[in-house]
Amino acid sequence: MKRAVLLRFVVILLLALAVSGAFSYYFIGRNMLQHDMSAMLNTIHAVDYALDYEGDLQAQVEQLHAAAMDENSRITVIASDGTVAADSEIDQPDVMENHLEREEVQEAFRSGTGSDTRSSESVGKNMLYVAARSGNGNYVVRMAVPYTNLIDYILSIFPVLLLGTGISFAVSVVIAIRFSDTITTPLNEISAEMEKVRGEEPDFTFKKYKYKELNVISETTMKMAAEIRAHMDQLEKEKKIRQEFFSNASHELKTPITSVRGYAELLDQGFIQDEATKKDFYARILKETDNMTNLINDILMISRLEAKEAEVTFSTVRIGPLLSEIFESMEPIAADYQVMLHKECSPVAIEASAKQMRELIMNLVSNGIKYNHPGGNVWVEAWSENGKLYIRVKDDGCGIGREDQERIFERFYRVDKGRSKKIGGTGLGLSIVKHIVEYYGGSIRLESEPGKGSCFTIELPFRKRI
After folding, report:
1. To bridge 29 with a disulfide, which of 19, 97, 153, 253 should be the other Cys (CB 3.0-4.6 Å)?
2. 455 strand-pairing partners
3. Consecutive 10-residue averages of pLDDT for the chain (466 residues)
């Protein structure tokens, strides 16, 4: 990666140097041309000052050129009518063609100075012409030097600029190498740390880098690792719960099936002759099949709620009448356990399944009755607050220890296994309650203390969140 980053950096650097060098050459060349033209104008003004326009101009021009000028330069004096009055390169200027149409001459007569580049017909070379109107206004003094184009100036400065570009390139490459190290070294360190993810318990240790983007990578990696670890823990927990569920389900089904099979074999083999005993066996078989049916129905309900596949018919469920109906059906059981039922309900209603609301409240009331003592009480309250429905089921029964409260909503989990078996039930009641509450996007809270009873508080939105 370092090589790729460095290569791309060098390519970009070369391109930048080439572009900047081209612009530098061009503008420096232009500046040098302007400087030369300015120097030529100064020379022209000096010649103009030295000339005596009343005397022999040709002789004066030749003398001045020989005394103070480079042999490659040329001085021409042009009259206002365009005739050549003197020329340093031509002995007989009167035979030269009229120069009035020359660009630099016209511009000089018009604005004072002028310039042009073209091939000279007289000397057969490309020349740079600079002209200025004389002090008396009747002549134009013109100076010419050989000139091809800006390449002449660029070539003259090329070695210096090439040396400067080379030094800049070398320094930039060194900086680029160090810069690439500041990127690739942290990435290699991060990559080495990320190799730990293959372990069972990866423990990442990232440095704090000066580039926040690299810190984002390390922070994101640690966050993802934590999420993966939490997800794996959740999967492991769910796997354990699932294994316990199948184990408990098979155990719960095996017991009544064994009983039914035993009673059926005794009846089938004719060992039981007494009619009263036969009826008792038939009653026990029916009871065990009812228990199995209830267990299977509860398991199916939990499965559908977990998969969000429960077929639900929504309607406006009035909680007050629903509580009255539940209390009426639970009165015989409460009487058997000598438990008093109490309710206090505001006139509230919720958009939900009446069957599910009945199942939810009835499971809690049933547990409050069965896990109570003679003379105990169960209170049910319902009210609305802050746009939500609250249902509280409280009892003064045996209560639940803190170590059991975290697992009370697990399937088949029983606090007092011996008593649970005695009072019946599938062990899925509170798990069903939790799944119904979660199905509606609500929450359930338990407060309990052994010997002082339990209090379940349910919070439900008035409409199920889709």
Report:
1. 153
2. 394, 447
3. 63 71 67 82 89 88 85 88 88 85 90 86 76 87 78 62 73 71 67 61 62 68 74 78 67 71 78 79 80 69 63 84 92 92 92 88 91 93 92 92 79 58 63 86 91 92 66
DSSP-based three-state secondary structure for 87: strand
Stated pTM of the model: 0.47
* CA pseudo-torsion sign 407, 411, 417, 423: positive
The radius of gyration of the chain from alpha carbons, rounded to an integer in Å, stands at 53
What is the DSSP track for 156-200? HHHHHHHHHHHHHHHHHHHHHHHHHHHHHHHHHHHHHHHGGGGSS
Q: CA 262 from chain center: how many Å?
A: 65
Secondary structure letter of residue 52 according to DSSP: -
Q: Is the sign of the CA dihedral 56, 58, 62, 65 positive or negative?
A: positive
Q: Which residues of 141-177 are buried (b: 16+ CB within 10 A; e: fewer)?
A: bbbbbebeeeebbbeeeeeeeeeebeeeeeebeeebe
Q: Long-range contact list for 272-280, CB < 8 A, 24+ apart?
A: none
382 contacts 346 by C-beta, under 8 angstroms: yes
Q: Identity (one letter) of the amino acid at 410?
A: E
- Kindly state the DSSP code that residue 53 receives in the 8-state scheme: T
Residue-by-residue DSSP string for 130-167: EEEE-TTSSEEEEEEEE---HHHHHHHHHHHHHHHHHH
Q: Cα separation of 319 and 339, whole Å?
A: 22
